[in-house]
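Morning run. Coffee first, then this:
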Amino acid sequence: MAESIQWKIKRFNELSLQELYSVLQLRSLVFVVEQNCVYQDMDGKDEEALHLLGELDGKIVAYARLFKAGDYFDYASIGRVIVHPDARDKKFGHDMMQQAIEGIKIHFNESNITISAQLYLKKFYESHNFVQTSEMYLEDDIPHIEMKREC
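And here it is:
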């Protein structure tokens, strides 16, 4: 039987202290430690975002931030897309992208989305109908590309 992940979307002030701690711990584990990248993760944008949480057995294993148009890019956007290393074999990333896209439609009434994608994930995002719209650029010394999904 496949494991079932529970999805929630919350505003910053609706996150419990435990949820916030778990999110920051997960982001630090992957974006700072695993990717060996020293950068300021807490960028002051968490308060503006909706937070998509994927919980399995009481533990947050997937996460993304959702922004309305104009908060980050001209279009609505998805950022800090992450799946815990121990859960990557379960393909939760695809479910999370569907939840994020649907969350933007429901909460912001938007269907056009921009992301700043790590280059190595280009095919993953293309499978969700994103197309590359920029040349490669470095963000925190990691190759990225801008991608858009227009509906």
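The CA atoms of residues 45 and 71 lie 9 Å apart. Good start to the day.
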